[in-house]
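pipeline/complex-builder :: batch 7 item 3
reading input block
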Amino acid sequence: MSSTEQGTSSAAPAEPTTAPESAAAPEVPESFYYVHGKDKVVHKVSAGALQHSALIHGMISNLGYTEEQAKANPFPFENIDGDILQMVVDWCNQHKGKPTPPEDTNLPKQKEKLFDLVLAVNYLEIKELLTYCCKQVAMMVKGKSPEEIREIWMIPTDAEDEAAEKEAKKRAGKEAAGETAAAAGDAK
Amino acid sequence: MPIALLKFPTDLLRDVFKLCNPIELYCLSKCSKRTQRSIKLSGTRNWKLFSGSNRAAMHVDDWMYSFYKAEKPEAHFKQVDSDKYVRIQCPEGDVDLFFILLDTFGIRLVGMLSIDFCNFESFSKIANILIERNMEVERFHIGCSTGTFPNLRWLQIYGKKIDNQSPILDMIPPIQIVGNPRVEVTFGYRKDIVDGVPVSKDDGTVGWLKVELGGRWPELKFLVVNPDDTVITPR
């Protein structure tokens, strides 16, 4: 299992310049967690960055891991491609502790990854990023005709939908018949 | 790069639809029966629909989205986009267009039903279906913007929304003539206006309006004069 360390550079605290030493608030060391996707590459992410994900935030709260336990048990997201998880981690790091602007220029630009990115962000429950992604999806059809929309959003025609429905029914019928035959065989 | 929108989970589809304007959703609904069903199932919208002859409009977040019937098929779905205004040409007109928009978007409130330039049959058909569905119409508009009366002779409406708050032909009821001269205007059997108010248009046509606010159901009567068959009798 390989590992990348994301978000660690921003973890170094700035030196206080004006406040007297006695008045300085005690520094709380930032905690880190580990996540991996389908490619098993582990990403180290600060708790602050992971706050964006309601799913991971909930997991952290429920599990109450120590730093060591977190390191030994990375959160597995087997349904998310490695490069997509990397994009999500990058976005969370860039927006750590910051209010998210109405228009996000740091949004991943690769259109071909947008579908997987939207699904991953939806699964991880990252509300702001999901809104940006959905906006990008919606923008794809601005000013387009139904024919153009059909191509952009890969919408099957009515005939294609009917054919797919027939095929699904046929398959379901075959499977049901197979199960009945198997049950009859077991009874004998 | 294409994206398989219909493979999104339902809640995600709903999020994307929320970010689309009425014209984008209308075009999407024209892609297939499935997309139309998906939009319908994504919930009702608090948009107001306005109707007129061969056109409909939707007012959403300070933007006006107008749908017009295209004269030629090659103009279908052509869009014009300007400041706070988007216009599209549609294959449907009148009643079909109105109900496609109403049903696809799950609209519950009709902002205005207008009969200026509109043929009265369409207006009547829409009004009848809305009454059957028990839908609320905020305002009826008897058109005057073109300087002519709409294409009708006689209009009689009973409605609780006829009150002393809403203007009718730019006048707030009670509507009476100064000095109150008594006149009876008749046209055909039981189509009469007693002590109404004459309203003239730029083209010289005259209509008589009578609004009665008292009683269980306030009543509006409107008659467009045709010199061939309308009798005006002083009383």
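note: Helices of chain A lie at 47-50, 54-63, 67-72, 82-94, 114-124, 127-139, 146-152, 158-187.
queue -> next item
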